[in-house]
Structure to design on (678 residues):
């Protein structure tokens, strides 16, 4: 027992004092948050760019509605979408010039609106890149509104009236926990669960790999022979698992403190943030519990993998099957996050290697009956 | 009392007999040589003694009792392939090794410092193991093996990779430990070292113990009537002498094997009569090296035919 403790101490100290640990602890949350907020940030960045459209309007009724239909403005108050008219007759003669302008970047796109637009004619969108689905979606929706307005007017109806009558109903999401109502938004659920899931996944995988490397390193450097002449293999393994596990928990505690500080800072300066992230202490507790369960499940497997590897090159190929055991539930989680109540989710959470991730997700999203533990 | 008793142990790898029914016992306080050519089964035998490999057959008694976790703390083992954590600092590494043998943290630190001082490594104490030369690492490993003052010390090829100064230093420490009553098992394939150090030897070849006993008895048993001669001039007459069995002539050095029952004095007289200048005349018993080559080389030759 004393020897296990000594091994734990060594494993813990040598790992916590490495540069890798310090960097990982600091950058870990940055990466996780960056991975989720990054795409959104880049998208908002791109919407800060003014887009110039050249519009060839054969119908003669759409063009003048466009500025009203695209009211988006940039941060500096200028309109985001700038429309310049091109006479259809001129366009017929200067098609080449318009294409050249698009290629040279003088204009971002050209919209060719046919004369029979109200009767179902197709609008042509000319641009260097047609990959921005969001943008095309926006153009289609907004133009549809314009065209629909005309159609309604032609049919003798008042568009304002119609829109008011066909307005969508709004839904307020309320979560029932132990018979009590909790007002929580979907986004709140989604973000908290996702952040924790990512952390669980990454740390289990990371520390599992650390175990493989540790065991293989001891094997290749022959330390294991010396250690075995002083201890036995059980003490050695337990020492390693507890040591590395303690490193993981330390990292969590540091992250916990960091995020608490960040949370207080964020909620005091930006109250809107609190709508996205809310962590109950119970969830934190479950998080630690499932880290411990998951860590021991996988790290024993990873330790076995390490014992199979005869050199560092083997690690990759031998640990792949075990890695898949954790990647699969991670991918499944994204489906479960949408609907944690299905029996599929319930059944999957009972499969031993899937339990740590999926069960944690189910508990944090929906709460589970006691027997399922 | 026997510090170690090995009875009929065997280890098989599939059909290959790595160790085949080896038995020996070691007196407390003696220096026991486990000798043999490369691949004879020395390391396997030592690993079985340390319970790192479990023997397929046979029984091992360590310090008067079967192997247990408790006996581990009284034994020091230096494996053939050294192993240290490359990224740990020297003193911390030794402290850890000491703690693994049941020393307390402070005790281990103190003993480690003393030994580092003695091995002239103290200025490296806070360097990482990987910054040290291979020879230095070996000395560190040796300190790790002896720092808990074991009753039984098992060292596998301790001198490999050391320069002559360090070899002598290590040898002195081994002898010092022996004087303090430590039983030492030394495995080596260098016969001249074994000959100078060991009281008892066990010679293993192809997994079998082919020689086992006190070095003195073995040497008597295998000694031949031979003379080493350094001379000048023409010595061709020697091989014509009636009592000479065979000679091995190097030009100014000659090894002469006499017929059995012949006294070396006869050769001495013959040389004196010949008036040939003789620089050195030595009646020799066979060296362990000769015995080794005779037994191991002879065996393999037989089997090759």
């Amino acid at each position: 027992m004393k020897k296990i403790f000594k091994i734990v101490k060594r494993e813990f100290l040598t790992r916590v004092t490495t540069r890798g640990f310090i960097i990982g602890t600091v950058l870990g949350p940055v990466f996780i948050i960056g991975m989720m907020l990054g795409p959104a940030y880049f998208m908002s960045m791109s919407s800060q760019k003014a887009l110039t459209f050249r519009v060839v309007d054969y119908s003669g009724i759409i063009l003048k509605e466009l500025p009203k239909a695209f009211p988006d403005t940039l941060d500096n108050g200028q309109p985001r979408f700038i429309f310049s008219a091109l006479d259809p007759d001129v366009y017929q003669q200067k098609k080449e010039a318009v294409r050249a302008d698009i290629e040279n970047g003088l204009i971002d796109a050209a919209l060719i609106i046919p004369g029979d637009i109200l009767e179902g004619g197709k609008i042509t969108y000319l641009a260097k890149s047609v990959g921005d689905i969001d943008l095309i979606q926006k153009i289609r929706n907004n133009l549809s509104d314009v065209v629909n307005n005309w159609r309604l007017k032609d049919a003798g109806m008042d568009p304002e009236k119609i829109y008011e009558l066909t307005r969508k109903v709004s839904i307020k999401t309320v979560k029932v926990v132990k018979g009590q109502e909790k007002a929580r938004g979907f986004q709140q659920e989604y973000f908290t669960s996702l952040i924790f899931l990512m952390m669980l996944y990454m740390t289990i995988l990371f520390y599992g790999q650390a175990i493989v490397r540790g065991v293989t390193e001891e094997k290749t450097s022959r330390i294991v022979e010396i250690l075995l002449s002083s201890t036995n293999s059980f003490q050695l393994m337990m020492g390693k698992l507890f040591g590395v596990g303690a490193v993981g928990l330390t990292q969590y505690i540091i992250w916990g403190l960091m995020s608490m500080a960040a949370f207080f800072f964020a909620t005091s300066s930006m109250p809107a943030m609190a709508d996205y992230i809310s962590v109950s202490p119970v969830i934190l507790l479950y998080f630690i519990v499932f880290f411990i369960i998951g860590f021991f499940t996988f790290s024993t497997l990873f330790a076995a993998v390490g014992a199979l590897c005869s050199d560092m090159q083997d690690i990759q190929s031998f640990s792949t099957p075990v890695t898949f055991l954790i990647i699969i539930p991670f991918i499944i989680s994204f489906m479960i996050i949408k609907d944690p109540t299905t029996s599929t989710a319930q059944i999957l959470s009972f499969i031993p290697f899937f339990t740590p991730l999926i069960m944690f997700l189910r508990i944090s999203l929906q709460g589970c009956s006691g027997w399922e533990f | 009392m026997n510090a170690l008793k090995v009875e009929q142990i065997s280890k098989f790898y599939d059909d290959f007999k790595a160790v085949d029914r080896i038995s020996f016992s070691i007196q407390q306080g003696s220096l026991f040589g486990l000798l043999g050519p490369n691949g004879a089964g020395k390391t396997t035998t030592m690993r079985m003694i340390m319970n790192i490999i479990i023997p397929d057959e046979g029984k091992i008694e360590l310090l008067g009792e079967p192997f247990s976790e408790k006996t581990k703390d009284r034994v020091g083992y230096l494996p053939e392939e050294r192993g240290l954590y490359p990224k740990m600092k020297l003193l911390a590494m030794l402290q850890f090794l000491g703690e693994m043998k049941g020393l307390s943290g402070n005790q281990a630190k103190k003993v480690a410092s003393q030994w580092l001082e003695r091995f002239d490594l103290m200025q490296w104490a806070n360097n990482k193991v990987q910054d040290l030369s291979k020879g230095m690492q070996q000395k560190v490993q040796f300190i790790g093996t002896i720092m808990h003052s074991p009753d039984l010390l098992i060292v596998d090829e301790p001198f490999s990779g050391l320069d002559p100064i360090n070899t002598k230093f290590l040898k002195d420490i081994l002898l010092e430990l022996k004087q303090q009553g430590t039983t030492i098992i030394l495995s080596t394939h260098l016969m001249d070292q074994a000959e100078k150090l060991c009281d008892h030897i066990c010679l293993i070849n192809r997994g079998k113990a082919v020689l086992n006993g006190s070095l003195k008895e073995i040497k008597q048993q295998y000694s031949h009537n031979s003379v080493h001669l350094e001379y000048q001039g023409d010595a061709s007459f020697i091989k014509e002498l009636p009592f000479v069995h065979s000679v091995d002539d190097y030009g100014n050095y000659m090894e002469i094997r006499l017929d059995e029952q012949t006294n070396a004095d006869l050769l001495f007289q013959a040389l004196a009569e010949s008036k040939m200048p003789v620089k050195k005349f030595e009646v020799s018993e066979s060296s362990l090296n000769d015995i080794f080559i005779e037994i191991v080389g002879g065996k393999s030759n037989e089997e090759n035919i």
Observations:
- Chain A has a mean pLDDT of 80.
- Strands of chain A lie at 51-57, 81-85, 109-113, 124-127, 174-177, 180-183.
